[in-house]
Design goal:
Chain lengths: ~575, ~300, ~325
């Protein structure tokens, strides 16, 4: 490979493409890949697309998949949680319907306020609003919420959030209400009061109360596992029909009282979710936004191959949402065994990793940000991740080699990496960049279903794992302890702490911060701890994806909600001109 | 095993058959072209690293400068980044050289196809001859097994088996899995042919002359079934290539970053309008190879197996 | 005849049982644990155990298989107390993913795959046989050559390529057809056809080419038979000779292939359905595979095998109708 010809060729290609760009109208600047260019999609961050919607019409949702679970006891997938809690069932507390950082603000939903703590935040009392009704007009009661909390313990209904199991007193061994047993730590003195008794203080309980676990399910409607196919509505819409993997039609729930709800606007009359479409066909339909598709929004994120079709057209680009998913993806190293039990080797990986290549593999800067810390930007003051380690974005293979040499691995080493099949391109980018520093990586791709299971087997898994963590609510409590507390490591079914990081100083500090009552001081402490952990190099930060969603030309009130990984806020989305939508 | 390129001269099908094949090749231009295409791709398979190195890029080597991250990693320049550097352009996102990948992909795809074919032929001929020659219980058992294997929804099963085995050598596994479902076809052809040869006079003569069954099988039956088997085999290769492509397309094929045509097509389908070159390169290669083997197989069948012993 | 049919049906059951056993074994050695997959992000050991027991995964393999097979005929009850699910004959279990009955899922998806297969079959038979017979009757003319070159080329085209070409030409460029989205035949026949036309064409191109080649060969062979000469000598019109005598005899091998192809396709054209995003059995299978939904995988495999063996049986029986020489 002759270096000079290569440079020449690149120069030639650049000139050619410059000429090309100059010829094509509407193209935004050269395509030479200069060092500093503005993020083309971030312009819409924090803004509402399409202004305020009009009431009525049919909103179409184009999806490439089916919902994982809509049963509130089982719903723990970010985009699905937004859909369920914004449209079908209300929770005790929820997030404000607002773009940007305001979206992490809590507002009462079923409850009159954000809950009253007592007994040193070990007891939480909520009082329900008066006159709340289900889709059949029957009243929503505190007992129904208790019932759903109990349901979340049932082995028949797996998959849901486990905060109830983690905090409620006397919950060990509880197997749900199916055999007539009930939880004593959830009390319902009357139909409008619910009291939770916890076994340890939990100052952030109102955040947990936004989870679908704390939505009501009337026992009379409970059909066990099949409730998933027809959740009973307490929200603004009810299910008219739901054909799995094909189509779901939502119509207005006439018993929902807008006066009792400060969050949901419920603009469209109907919402039709068309499922199982091809991802790139969804993109093409929304780019064109022809008659029927102008009132449609995308469920699935923009495919990488469609990005150029969107960014080169200003009018289409204006319809792209790209809110951060607030999930940090990291290259996690097995700190429990050689060669990654050696700090120098781990630092070599941090230095070798080419985050630029990872960002490109994840769709480019328009839809992905390089990560500079472990916690996502939303948990840092100012909403941005600091660059803790000061490593160049493209990595520094020379420095990495140096570190390997210091670790006594001058000849490099061989290891293997497990990635989700959907992150194959990222895996290849990791492989390529570590390869430059002398670390030979073999890639194992695993289907999404088996991914967590595979990497959770700490004995048989690969040394390297590329995976992320999303905070369940905007607090360091739901991030660092999950990812770096060595006491949570399990031999099988391990989750979160995939570096198997076990550091006494870190664990001690985590306990101290968890006990803090001053929220601001705790946040600051988490942020500092984040940097201290990275210096010990259990992980190499990779990237944070944005949720890139296209909406049609007739769609209004659309923004990505920061608390649900950037998913479109279904509480406020609607149409500019309802008469233009299909029925 | 390369039955397709250097077949052993059969005794009874006669040297005449091969003369006929050669005559046929001289007669038909399409045959010459397909032979050339087959030869080209076989050469590519044999000398992939050598040929690919002509371009100066490895199949797994990234070229960040060739793609524009701000457009989702689309190649910079016309025709998917075709340049003096990258003869066939580059892969979007990674900037890997398409020429290097398609050449190495040929190696993987054709190796799998040929090896699977070899297994199918070996197993099929053995089972077919055994069933046809020995008859009786052997025949019943083998025929039942053939019926059973043919009742398996093969593609569905191949996908399932490939997805189950995670740590195994994917290439080897793919060869075995594809081979597993292919042999009954050959076995049936061979069985029929063996049945008809079994009572021919020269076979009877050999038997009377005191030859043992193994000798008869090797000297008299095997050459007799060679013609139809060769024709059938050549026609089977395209199917094998397509199956490899299908499995890789569905994401249960080779392990990344290894290229294969199926894997390349699978990843490039979505780019058909934004980067047509990326999609065309592996598709055209697959098309040409399948076409060439089909034409070649047709001609061989016309000459070697004119009555068409296929079912 | 009845005896023959009975014996064959018994054989069908045996084959299905064998296939079920093999599939069961393959997925039992699967390294992934459906219970862990169902449990989600954070899962305590005792909860995992409870879920595993609930799914019946704690029993040994032979026990699970026996339960599955007897369950097909007698029905099964799964789950605990109030949440127990009961499924009646034919019970293929419940999907791990969405708790729907596997049988119901198959019944729900089959019309999509059947529509796809049936429409494509009509197209490819019409195109393929016409081309094949035409070429055979004009053997060694320019028409014959052109048709056969076209057929070889079309048969060599990867289905991905044809599909993409059709999508680009008929949707993106001209807007003649909508993006395929399954509409049931019963709700709107016109929209059903216009949505499926594209996948039909994509499949038909491939198969028509193969059928053209096959039927040409068969036709040439049968037209050379002595009885055709006799029929001609009798002075029968050419049309009658070709259709009633030539085609009918030449149909036998075509019928075999057609039966196998249709049987295979009914159980889902995995690639075509995934390329066009059609919610048929093939996509159900592929989805189940990526989510490790074993009951669904087993169900689809059995359905596919069932179609293949039934198609084979049907073909054998049809022989008697088409070819008068065959008797049972």
């Amino acid at each position: 490979m002759n270096k000079r010809t290569r440079t020449l060729a690149i120069a030639l290609v650049s000139t050619l493409s410059l000429g090309l760009a100059a010829c094509s109208t509407g193209s935004s600047g050269g395509k030479t890949g200069g060092p500093e260019r503005k993020n083309p999609a971030a312009a819409n961050a924090g803004a509402v697309i399409g202004g305020t919607p009009q009431k009525g019409g049919t909103l179409t949702v184009l999806s490439n998949q089916d919902f994982t679970h809509l049963d509130p006891a089982r719903n723990w997938v970010m985009p699905d949680m937004d859909f369920g809690t914004r449209l079908l069932y209300r929770t005790l507390v929820t997030y404000k319907a607002a773009p940007g950082a305001d979206g992490s603000e809590l507002v009462p939903d079923l409850a009159e306020d954000l809950g009253t703590p007592s007994n040193g935040a070990k007891t939480w009392t909520f009082r329900l609003k008066a006159g709340l009704k289900y889709e059949d007009g029957t009243p929503v009661t505190a007992q129904d919420i208790k019932h759903n909390v109990e349901r979340s313990f049932s082995p028949d209904l797996p998959g849901g959030p486990d905060y109830a199991a983690r905090y409620l007193a006397g919950a060990e061994g509880y197997q749900g209400p199916a055999r007539g047993k009930h939880l004593d730590s959830v009390k319902t003195p009357d139909a409008r009061t619910i009291v939770f008794e916890l076994h340890k203080p939990f100052a952030e309980f109102p955040f947990a109360a936004t989870l679908p676990t704390f939505a009501p399910v009337p026992p009379a409607q409970d059909k066990g596992a099949q409730y998933d196919n027809r959740p009973f509505s307490s929200g603004p819409y009810k299910i008219e029909s739901y054909a799995r993997d094909k189509q779901m039609v939502l119509v207005r729930n006439t018993h929902w009282d807008p006066a009792s709800d400060s969050v949901r606007k419920a603009y469209p009359d109907r919402i039709v979710v068309t499922m199982g479409l091809k991802g790139n066909q969804i993109d093409d339909r929304l780019v064109a936004s022809a008659a029927g598709d102008s009132s449609a929004v995308a469920w699935s994120t923009l495919r990488p191959e469609s990005i150029s079709k969107v960014l080169t057209k200003a009018d289409v680009k204006a319809r792209l949402l790209a809110e951060s998913s607030s999930c940090t993806e990291m290259l996690q190293m097995h700190t429990g065994r050689a060669p990654f039990d050696d700090l120098k080797v781990r630092q070599a990986v941090q230095w070798a990793l080419d985050r630029e290549a990872i960002v490109t593999a994840a769709g480019g800067p328009a839809v992905t940000d390089a990560a500079g810390a472990a916690m996502p930007g939303s948990l840092f003051t100012g909403g941005k991740q600091p660059d803790t380690l000061g490593i160049p974005l493209a990595g520094d293979p020379e420095k990495a080699r140096q570190l390997l040499k210091e670790a006594g691995k001058a000849d490099g080493l061989s290891t293997s990496l497990t990635v989700n099949i959907n992150d194959k391109a990222i895996g290849e980018a990791v492989q390529q960049s570590l390869g430059k520093a002398g670390i030979k990586v073999t890639i194992e791709t695993v289907d999404p279903s088996a991914f967590y299971d595979t990497i959770g087997d700490t004995k048989n898994r690969t040394d390297l794992v590329y995976t992320g963590w999303c905070p369940d609510f905007p607090s360091g409590t739901t991030f660092l302890p999950f990812v770096f507390d060595g006491r949570f490591v399990k031999e099988k079914g391990n989750s979160g702490n995939h570096s198997l990081f076990k550091d006494d100083a870190t664990m001690k500090r985590m306990d101290e911060i968890a006990a803090m009552t001053d929220g601001d001081a705790a946040n600051k402490a988490w942020q500092e701890l984040d940097g201290q952990i990275l210096a010990k190099a259990p992980v190499a930060p990779g990237a944070m994806k944005r949720r890139a969603l296209l909406v049609g030309t007739n769609v209004a009130g659309a923004y990505g909600h920061t608390s649900w990984s950037g998913q479109l806020d279904y509480a406020t989305v609607g149409l500019k001109d309802p008469s233009k939508s299909a029925n | 095993m390369t039955t397709t390129t250097t077949p052993p001269p059969p005794v009874h099908a006669g040297g005449g058959a091969w003369r006929a094949v050669r005559a046929e090749i001289r007669r038909r231009t399409s045959l010459k072209v397909s032979l050339a295409v087959v030869a080209l791709f076989v050469l590519m398979t044999a000398a992939a690293p050598l040929i690919a190195s002509l371009g100066g890029w490895g199949p797994e080597e990234f070229d960040k400068s060739a793609v524009d991250p701000y457009l989702g990693g689309l190649p910079i320049g016309p025709l998917g980044g075709v340049s003096a550097e990258h003869w066939l352009g580059v892969e979007p996102i990674t900037g890997r050289d398409l020429f290097a990948r398609v050449v190495h992909g040929a190696q993987v795809s054709l190796l799998i196809a040929f090896a699977a074919t070899a297994i199918v032929v070996l197993a099929g001929v053995t089972a077919g001859i055994a069933a046809g020659y020995f008859g009786g219980r052997t025949d019943t058992a083998l025929s039942r097994l053939m019926d059973l294997t043919m009742s398996f929804p093969s593609l569905i099963f191949m996908i399932a088996m490939m997805s189950v085995a995670r740590d195994a050598d994917r290439t080897l596994l793919m060869i075995l899995v594809i081979g597993l479902f292919g042999w009954p076809g050959v076995a049936r052809v061979v069985r029929g042919q063996t049945l008809s040869l079994k009572h021919r006079e020269y076979v009877d003569a050999a038997r009377v002359g005191g030859s043992g069954p193994w000798r008869i099988l090797a000297r008299d039956i095997l050459p007799g079934v060679a013609g139809p088997v060769i024709a059938y085999t050549t026609l089977m290769v395209p199917g094998m290539i397509a199956t490899e492509a299908a499995l890789s397309y569905l994401g249960v094929g080779v392990r990344p970053p290894t290229p294969s045509w199926g894997q390349m097509i699978a990843e490039s389908v979505a780019y058909y309008d934004t980067d047509p070159m990326y999609f065309l390169v592996p598709s055209v290669c697959l098309f040409l190879t399948v076409l060439a083997f089909t034409l070649l197989g047709d001609a061989l069948r016309d000459v070697l197996d004119p009555r068409g012993s296929r079912t | 005849m009845i005896l023959y049919l009975g014996r064959r049906l018994l054989g069908v059951l045996g084959v299905l049982l064998a296939i079920a056993a093999v599939t069961f074994t393959i997925f039992y050695v699967l390294p992934s644990d459906p219970a862990a997959a169902a449990c989600g992000k954070a899962c305590s050991d005792e909860r995992l155990e409870a879920i595993r027991a609930n799914m019946g995964l704690d029993a040994p393999l032979w026990r699970q298989f026996a339960d599955f097979v007897t369950g097909i005929f007698t029905g099964r009850t799964m789950g605990t107390g109030q949440y127990a699910l009961h499924c009646d004959f034919p019970c293929l279990g419940y999907s791990y993913e969405n708790s729907e009955g596997v049988w119901d899922l198959l019944v729900d998806r089959l019309p999509v795959s059947a529509s796809l297969a049936a429409g494509a079959a009509v197209l490819w038979l019409a195109l393929g046989l016409t081309a094949g017979v035409t070429a055979a009757l004009r053997k060694d003319t320019l028409t014959d050559r052109a048709l056969m070159v076209g057929a070889v080329a079309a048969a060599s085209l990867p289905v991905y390529f044809t599909s993409v070409l059709l999508i680009y030409g008929l949707i993106r460029l001209t807007g003649l057809l909508p993006y395929p989205q399954y509409v049931p035949l019963t709700s709107d026949p016109l929209s059903w056809a216009s949505n499926l036309l594209l996948p039909w064409l994509a499949l038909a191109v491939l198969y028509a080419a193969m059928y053209a080649r096959q039927s040409r060969g068969a036709m040439i062979e049968s037209m050379a038979e002595p009885y055709i000469r006799t029929a001609r000598a009798k002075g029968l019109p050419r049309r009658t000779v070709v259709v009633k005598h030539g085609l009918r005899a030449g149909m036998t091998p075509i019928l075999t292939i057609f039966g196998m192809d249709l049987g295979g396709l009914l159980a889902g054209a995995v690639i075509t359905e995934s390329l066009f995003g059609l919610p048929g059995v093939g996509r159900l299978f592929y989805g189940a595979l990526t989510t490790g939904d074993q009951p669904v995988i087993l169900g689809v495999t059995l359905l596919a095998a069932g179609f293949i063996v039934v198609a084979n049986l049907a073909v054998d029986l049809l022989y008697a109708v088409v070819d008068p020489r065959v008797r049972y």
